[in-house]
Amino acid sequence: MKHNMNNLTITNLNLQDKHGKKLISNLNVEIKAGEVLSLMGPSGCGKSTLLHAIAGHPLNDFSVTGDVSLNGKSLNSTPVEERNIGFLFQDDLLFPHLNVWQNLAFSLPDSVKKKDRKEQALLALKQQNLIDLADKNPSQISGGQRARISMIRMLLAKPCAVLLDEPFNKLDQQLRQEFRQWVFDLIKQNSLPVLMVTHDQEDIPLNSQTIIWPV
């Protein structure tokens, strides 16, 4: 399923810590469908916190003001589970007690009937040439494979925008390059706006908007 009109817009966003120190001032960006906006900066400067704020996660030690909207609709008062934003972390966060296809089936929208979930999960694996992993547990597959399964799981939830928090960080150099290209290809195919946090200049795709901290 392709989304053609997804735009993620951040307007006058300010982020400060509990001591009143400003980490972000008046951030204004628009990320169009299929585009990647990259955020770079030193550790502890609020990049990951910004992603959590956009996703709607509670921020105990920070306060955030400004507006986040998706396709022209403000998300400020929208609960996390209704924001329709995919989030990919450094860790794969797969459920260890479920096998690969069950992990994928878990993320499918509620509208998918129980009897169709396995079939859709297997189809997603087949499309990415990973069908051999279907019945394996996360502990039985490699780090690179787990990273791919995490990405597929996130996309199966049909997000309208994606947040990437250093998702390539734990992979070795060659794997990192392959996985990175695969991720950006999928983002383009699905016409998703993406906000990515990274420390590595090489993670940034060509023609990506880039913001260097502090902002």
Helix segment tally: 5
What's the arrangement of strands in the largest beta sheet?
A: 6-7-8-3-9
Tell me the span between the first and last alpha carbons.
35 Å
- Give the class from helix and strand content and strand pairing: alpha/beta
Largest beta sheet, briefly? 5 strands, parallel
Helix content: 25-40%
Portion in strands: 25-35%
Number of strands: 9
Q: Can you tell me the overall shape?
A: globular
Mind telling me the C-alpha Rg? 17 Å
Order of helices and strands: EEEHEEEHHHEHEE
Q: Note poorly predicted spans.
A: none
Average pLDDT reading: 90
Search tags:
215 residues; single chain; five-stranded parallel beta sheet; globular; 5 helices; alpha/beta; four-stranded antiparallel beta sheet
Note down, in words, how this protein is organized.
- By secondary structure, the protein is an alpha/beta fold.
- Helix content is 29%, strand content 25%.
- The protein has 5 helices and 9 strands.
- The protein has helices at residues 47-55, 100-107, 114-127, 143-156, 173-189; strands spanning 8-17, 22-31, 36-40, 62-70, 73-74, 85-88, 161-165, 194-198, 209-212.
- The protein has a 5-stranded parallel beta sheet with strand order 6-7-8-3-9, with helices on both faces. A 4-stranded antiparallel beta sheet has the order 2-1-4-5, covered by helices on one side.
- A hairpin with a 4-residue loop joins strand 1 (8-17) and strand 2 (22-31).
- Helix 2 crosses helix 3.
- The longest helix is centred in the last third of the chain and has 17 residues, at 173-189.
- It is globular and about 50 Å long.
- The N and C termini lie far apart (35 Å).
- The mean pLDDT is 90.
